Amino acid sequence: MFDVLPDRLPWFIGGPILGFLIVAMLALANQPLGASGAYVQTSSFLRRQGGVAVWRVWYFVGMFIGGLLVTQVLRQGAEIRSGYDALREVFPLWAAIPLVFGGATLLGYGAAVAGGCTSGHGMCGTAQRSPASLAVTVTFMATAIATTFVLRVLTGGAL
Amino acid sequence: MMNLLGLLFGMLFGGVLAASNLHEYDTIHAMLRLDEFDVFWFMASAITVALPGLWLLERIGFRTPLGGSLILSRSMPERHHVEGGALFGVGWAIAGTCPAPALVMVSSGAMLGLVAIPGIFLGLHLRERQHADTLHVGDGEHRETVSAGT
Question: Quick check: ipTM above 0.90?
Answer without folding.
Answer: yes
